[in-house]
Amino acid sequence: LKLACPRSARLWTSRCSLLYNMCQQRPSALRREERGHAALGEGGAASNAGAAAASKDPPRRKWSSGAEFTIACIGYAVGLGNFWRFPALCFNNGGGAFLVPYTLTLLLIGMPIFLLELGMGQKFQIGGAELWKRVHPSLGGLGVASITATAIVAVYYNVVVCWALWYFFRSFAWDGVLPWAESRGGALQFWEVDTLHCRPAQNLSSAAPETCAWGAGTTWPQEPGIARPGPLVWPLVGCLALGWVLVWLCVCKGVHSAGKVAWFTALFPYAVLLALLVRGLSLPGAHVGLKWYLTPSFDKLAEPQVWVAAASQIFYSTGIGWGTLPAFASYNRHDHNFVRDAWLVPVINCGTSFLAGLVVFSVLGDMSQETGVPIDEMQIEGSGLAFVVYPQAIAKLPVAPLFALLFFTMLLCLGLDSEFSMVETILTAVDDAGVGQNYPRAVKAAAACLAMFGVGLLFVTRGGLHWLELVDGYAANLTLFIVGVVECLAVGWVYGADRFAADTLEMAKAKLPKALLWNYKLVVPALLAVLTVQAFVSTATSKVHFPPYAVALGWCLALASALPIPLLAIRPLCCPPPYASEGLTSPRERAGLVGKLAASLHRLSRSLSFGASSRGASSAPAPSGLPPELSTERADVELAAAREVR
Questions:
Q1: Is the dihedral of CA 178, 183, 188, 193 positive or negative?
Q2: Rounded Cα–Cα distance for residues 9 and 6 (Å)
Q3: Using CA atoms, how far apart are residues 318 and 332, in angstroms rounded to an integer?
Q4: Interatomic CA distance for residues 113 and 323, integer angstroms
Q5: CA dist., res. 149 & res. 290, Å (int)
Q6: What φ, ψ does residue 562 adopt, rounded to 5°?
Q7: Is 84 left (phi over 0), alpha (psi -120 to 50) or beta?
Q8: Which of 215, 443, 608, 645 would suit a FRET pair with 392, their CA atoms being 20 to 30 Å apart?
Q9: Each residue of 156-203: pLDDT tens digit?
Q10: What gap in Å lies between CA 517 and CA 497, rounded to an integer?
């Protein structure tokens, strides 16, 4: 057939290659069983050992149990953002009324995408970087964008862990007085002078002391600042190095070590949170803070920015769109019930956020009543809440060093849990791409941690706080919304929502409702598209206090993580892969649109020319050396191709 009709032979070869590649995706246990049967048929244990050695891919690591996977997901989702981001968002966006868009966004967007990512990762048994390329080569940029955003955030996220380590060590106050107590200069001076070294201490003596924060009257360039970050702060460099050592210890053995660590880092913060809640509610002024926290202001719901803030918090809090959930799910057994985790983990995560708000505002209310400073005049956004306002409140409590140790231990656990989950996502992408196969996991983890430590040194300079605020504000917000849109469109229309429902029924023994499938196809993409446009407009028109060159740099960071999606989607259109390339989809689906059109036209012209020649020479003998039945086979192949084109 190859000699008589090379093109038909290539068509059959591509289809046989497709069948072979699909068979290669069978469960590893079935492949091992078949290799064992084949070895026994060929003569014993020696053949069996040879067949096992012939397997190229090492067996994929698995979680020790389903509960370990659930705990790891909870530890990843519950992070520092639950403690300092959610209470500030509630305070600035309508108080209790913010729970309305937050809950709706969780139900319509958060939980469906959480289920989608867990299901796809468990089905394909591969991390997020390679997962979407398996669905279609034009979707390869989806995984690259997620991993890029994760890598950017992982670099500066560990700086917050470094700050928590510094405060943890300084909480060992043997005289019973914390170093940030009012009698020793206050929490603001300890934060900006003793920790960040971003301004000298003598500025506090003026009537209006300067701060390290950007202000409307800031002159550029500021030193220390973005253009001139200044020298390294060596105590923070040591804490940052210690933070990366802790992360390396968590990921050096893959999910086996990460899963064991997650049992402590995910559960211990709840014990501390409950202790702080009991203490906070017992304070005489707790009702003042709870009133600020829970009183609804429904007029805020008419502002689009409130809904954007709710959606952004859902992406940051539940961890969807970062590529970590598919990576974690790829280490599951094929029959793990991920549907249960898809609703359990987001509910626990959002409940933790609400609980953290009660802890924060009960203490802030008591401090407001004691000092006479209204809560709305306190700096309760970002690092100011965790490292200025709340430590100042802790310093006024009885047995303050004990509560400080508990609080910063909780921050360490929350930060480390999310940090090593992001690093594990990056290492999973490296393993799936086949990079450094000759090196052990510990060496690759050390190389990744060392590289991110080197980049993170920028954030522990005297101007590092400004760099962190800039990167945090621009790096991933838009990218996460875009990733969510493309993921839902990919599953709903490319992979097939019905096919995903069948996979879920096979793996988790759970039937997905039709409404959820249409949610993937239409509702979630439409909602996220609107939120993406609104987020872009809000970011572009917001009154920022960064200099123009810093804003331009921020947009470059945002594009660096979002551009892989369109760029890698265009590549298959211009350079379609060969039909026999490795993958799970059919040859026509693997090729780009240009490749599809060219192949279809070629098969059509070939079938028409063959039909004309066969009608003109119907009595002609078969080619020399080609049996008549193969000539008939060729005619069937060409007519089938023409029918396929039509």
A1: negative
A2: 5
A3: 19
A4: 12
A5: 35
A6: -95, -30
A7: alpha
A8: 215
A9: 999 999 999 999 999 998 888 899 988 787 888 898 888 988 877 654
A10: 6
Continuous H helices in 125-232: 128-135, 140-170, 187-189
Which stretches within 519-627 are classed as H helix?
A: 524-541, 548-562, 564-574, 587-590, 593-616
Alpha-carbon span 99 to 312, nearest angstrom: 14
The whole-chain average pLDDT of the chain stands at 79
Three-state secondary-structure class, residue 587: helix
Closest Cα to residue 198, out of 231, 242, 235?
A: 231
Residue 232 pairs with which residues in a beta bridge? 461
Give SS3 for 339: helix
| Tokens coding 299 | 């007029």
Two tokens, residue 509: 């023994």
* Model pLDDT for residues 5-61, shown as the tens digit of each residue: 666 666 666 666 656 555 555 444 444 444 433 333 333 333 333 333 333 456 778
Q: Provide the total of helices (H) and of strands (E) in the chain, helices listed first.
A: 31, 0
Query: How much is the pLDDT for 41?
Result: 37
Per the DSSP assignment, residues forming a β-bridge with 579 are none
- Predicted TM-score of the model (pTM): 0.78
Share of the chain residues as helix, strand and coil, in percent rounded to the nearest 5: 75, 0, 25
Contact of 262 with 416, CB cutoff 8 Å: no
3-class SS of residue 381: coil
Angle at 383 between CA 378 and CA 386, to 5 degrees: 75
Q: Compute, in degrees rounded to 10, the torsion defined by CA atoms 81, 356, 163, 206.
A: 110
Report yes or no: 461 and 231 within 8 Å, Cβ to Cβ: yes
How distant, in Å, are the alpha carbons of 28, 93, 311, 420, 607 from that of 529?
Answer: 39, 22, 12, 31, 44
d(CA 158, CA 448): 13
- d(CA 36, CA 383) in angstroms, rounded, equals 58
Element (H, E) at 418: helix 400-432
Euclidean distance between CA atoms 127 and 436, whole angstroms: 16
Q: Within 13 Å and on the Cβ side, how many CA atoms surround 336? A: 27
Give the separation between CA 258 and CA 417, rounded to whole angstroms. 9
Hey, CA dihedral for 76, 391, 153, 257, is it positive or negative?
negative
Task: State how far the alpha carbon of 617 is from the alpha carbons of 284, 613, 624, in Å.
Answer: 102, 6, 15
Per-residue pLDDT tens for 254-264? 777 888 888 88
Query: Nearest Cα to 381, choosing from 373, 389, 369?
Result: 389
Q: What's the token pair of residue 605?
A: 């012209």
Question: Which letter, b or e, does each residue of 399-431 get, where b requires 16 or more Cβ atoms within 10 Å of its Cβ?
Answer: ebbebbbbbbbbbbbbbbbbbbbbbbbbbbbbb
* Inter-residue contact 359 to 394 (CB < 8 Å): no
- Give Cα separations from 213 to 331, 382, 465, 520, 546 (angstroms): 43, 11, 8, 42, 10
